[in-house]
Amino acid sequence: MIHFKSIKVQINLFLAAFALFLFLKEPRFAFFTGFFWSVLFSILIEGAVLFLKTKKFQVTESALTSGLIIGYILSSESSWWIFLAVAAFTVGLKRVLRFRGKNLLNPAALGIFLAVFLLKGSTEWKGAYAWYFLIPAGLYIVNKIKKTEIVWGYFAMSFLLFIPQALAQGSSLLDIPGYFNYFFIFIMLIEPKTTPSTRWPKVVFGAGVALLVFLLTEWGFRYEPELFALLVLNASVPFLNKIPDFKFKTAQKTS
Question: Which one, of 109, 112, 108, lies nearest residue 122 by Cα?
Fold first, then answer.
């Protein structure tokens, strides 16, 4: 039974609906096959791993989410075995790289990054700049999973970096919103299990990712600067969670 109130179900429905919109906007057979392979392999590999443990094949929400995300980011022109490798990396390594019972690194980001770095895979980031879809849905998602501070930290740091750069280069400040990969920000960056759990660590996390993305891009980093920056900050979460979560209280009037 599908529980539509579940945020995991809602995210999967959004990802599926957005993919359908993009396909109808620009129909390509490779676009369809890319999503087909990524979702199929994610479900089969996750189901096989669970079958070995429980003797029951299961189609999980996390497998669907991972498969859809892989379909968005990995190039549709990739060979089927690249999709298989990414799904295997994603499903397998999330059960190995853990800290205190939780995933240490974003599974899909790690799987895709390894495919790019080790297998010379390529990415496409379908619909990444479709702000009219991703911002409204993204704001709803981050509010539901309580990761809003990560997004504000990312945007704040990005504007602090982009505005001086634009002024120095003589570019229009109005062009800055077009620089953002909204799919990365509202889907990848906020993954609940691999990000901090309290306010100020979340702000530092988002700002740290933005800073590292900017620096890696400026330095000409070849292997997906956004994914690499995300993985680096994921690894730092155990340390970020030690940052005191200061709360500012207003003075109460006494009668």
Answer: 112
